[in-house]
Design brief:
Radius of gyration: 25 Å
Order of helices and strands: HHHHHH
Length: 119
């Protein structure tokens, strides 16, 4: 009886951390395929197929996961690029004519938002 309790306690200690482990995020991986593989391992194949599979037999889940993750990463890169261009334009405006900049915009963020909308 004691052995059974010890074995159950040991098994419980191994399973509990795995259950509370955080799901992987795309930012943790350099490419979408590695991210999707980690998600599939973390969630289990059936849950992964239910989550990402779109056809009748849900066998296209891995491809759908890679595709959607890659597209999302590309959009994030484009957004970051737009943000840095807008920030640079605002810094240039502010250094060239600080009085006009203060008159046109309440703060720096408002200038960045306006510059992003121009693009």
């Amino acid at each position: 009886m004691k052995r059974m309790l010890v074995v159950c306690a040991l098994v419980g200690m191994l399973l509990v951390p795995a259950a509370f482990a955080a799901d992987p995020t795309p930012a943790d991986f350099k490419n979408a395929a590695k991210y999707c593989k980690a998600v599939r391992e973390a969630k289990g194949v059936e849950q992964f197929q239910t989550l990402y599979g779109k056809n009748a037999n849900k066998k296209n889940a891995f491809g759908k996961c890679v595709s959607t993750t890659a597209k999302a990463k590309a959009e994030n890169r484009e957004d970051a690029e737009e943000q840095s261009k807008a920030t640079a334009a605002c810094k240039k405006q502010q250094t060239e004519n600080a009085a006009k900049f203060a008159q046109d915009y309440k703060n720096f963020g408002q200038c960045v938002k306006a510059e992003k909308n121009k693009s």
